[in-house]
Specification:
By secondary structure, the chain is of the alpha/beta class. The chain contains eleven helices and 15 strands. It is elongated.
């Protein structure tokens, strides 16, 4: 099945596209570097070497050789990240080198138009100091981007943070005040997060003393590891259990098989369905949205999520506190329409680059709710940056498993 080799196919396509882009940037904007034979040889060797590594990775996946998968996926990630860093840096270095070429052209023009003052001929000499400074500045740009890329690769393997976040609601029943909900999303067991990693994460998660665990999709990219992953997650000691919903990667791996595995496991699946939990004299109703799978079709996704959410909350007790699990953060839009006070989501990984607790793409994609706490009408959303990743790069956007503490907002209700 081709979906089993999605990471390798993605890497090959991305490398080819980036290689073409780099070639264009070198020929058009970085001609000084393109004139160096070693640069040209490196350009031709990069996609060849990357292709060989990805093929080895694919062979390891087909033969289920863990050591070959680790080597292939690790080196592929490094090659792809550094190639992307180079592609991003070349337009900026090219702009600097273009300035240098312009300066050289002006100097040459001045030399060809010597100025005579009395009997003296003034021959303007080129400013070699300025040229060397400009060339050095151009070379610094790729170095900085390579360093950032390396830091992002290293950061992706850092500890999963578990921030404790108070979420306040005016109509919360007093018996739900203080309820502790651990949110796991986008674990992506497989190439870069294995079962040993998950076991360590669960050990840390137990120390947060969760009353309830919610798993909002993209659990495992390796179908064979899914049963063990579910058992590890279900092993967390809680008062009210663990519930899961679907993400797009469950569909990528074969939804029918995935659903069979989850249904046979210890964690109930909420797929366009919900469940009510009695908590003291109050109640919590959890509804799980299905995933629309399609990418970049906002209106179609909205209609799909709307149908799924309405089905999930059909017959939900009106006096219960309603909570929506939606792999897609766009679930907030439907939650606001349906007056669902709290939604938990993942999917975006915060675009894997963040600053000060927000995705760097937030200004350009405000309606995608990429990372963090959002409000719309009377509804609130928290989008987790995710426990794991299917591509190991994080810069200013660490992996997380947030713990929500529900609080009654006495000032509003």
């Amino acid at each position: 099945m081709l979906t089993s080799f999605f990471p390798q196919i993605f890497t090959i396509v991305a490398l080819a596209a980036l290689w073409l882009l780099i070639a264009i940037w070198l020929v058009t904007l970085n001609r000084q570097w393109w004139a160096i034979p070693r640069v040209r040889r490196a350009l031709w060797m990069t996609p060849l070497a990357g292709g060989v590594v990805v093929v080895l990775w694919a062979l390891g996946s087909a033969a289920r050789l863990g050591w070959l998968i680790s080597i292939g996926s690790g080196i592929s990630a490094v090659v792809l990240t550094l190639t992307l860093a180079l592609a991003v840096s070349l337009p900026f270095s090219g702009a600097v080198l273009t300035i240098e070429r312009l300066v050289r052209w002006i100097i040459a023009k001045r030399r060809n138009n010597q100025v005579t003052v009395g009997p003296v001929v003034i021959d303007p000499a080129p400013d070699h100091g300025r040229r060397s400074f400009v060339t050095g500045a151009a070379a610094t740009i790729p170095v900085v981007t390579f360093a950032s890329a390396g830091f992002g690769l290293i950061s992706s393997h850092g500890a999963v943070r578990m921030p404790e976040l108070e979420m306040r609601f005016p109509d919360l029943h007093h018996d739900l005040d203080g309820l502790r909900i651990l949110h796991l999303s986008d674990i992506h067991i497989g190439n870069y997060v294995d079962l040993d990693d998950l076991e360590k994460i669960m050990e840390s998660a137990q120390s947060t003393r969760p009353d309830l665990v919610l798993v909002s999709g993209d659990i495992s990219d390796d179908v064979a590891m899914l049963p063990d992953a579910l058992r590890l997650i279900a092993g967390l000691k809680t008062k009210y259990g663990t519930f899961a919903s679907l993400g797009n990667h469950e569909y990528f791996r074969g939804i029918q098989q995935i659903v069979r595995i989850i249904d046979a496991g210890p964690i109930p699946l909420l797929r366009s369905s919900g469940t009510s939990i009695a908590i003291g004299g109050g109640a919590l109703y959890i509804g799980g949205a299905d995933d629309p799978v399609m990418m970049g079709q906002r209106e179609r996704n909205h209609a799909f999520l709307q149908r799924s959410v309405r089905a999930a909350f059909d017959g939900a007790p009106s006096d219960a506190f309603h909570l929506l699990m939606s792999h897609r953060p766009e679930g907030l839009d439907i939650a606001a329409e349906e007056k669902i006070p709290f939604t938990v989501a993942g999917h975006t990984h915060g675009a894997q680059v963040g600053f000060n607790g927000r995705s760097v793409l937030e200004p350009w994609m405000p309606k995608n709710y990429l990372w963090g706490h959002y409000r719309k009408g009377g509804s609130q959303l928290y989008t987790s940056s995710g426990v794991g990743h299917w591509f190991p790069f994080r810069l200013g956007c660490p992996p997380e498993a947030p713990l929500y503490v529900l609080r009654k907002d006495a000032g509003m209700g």
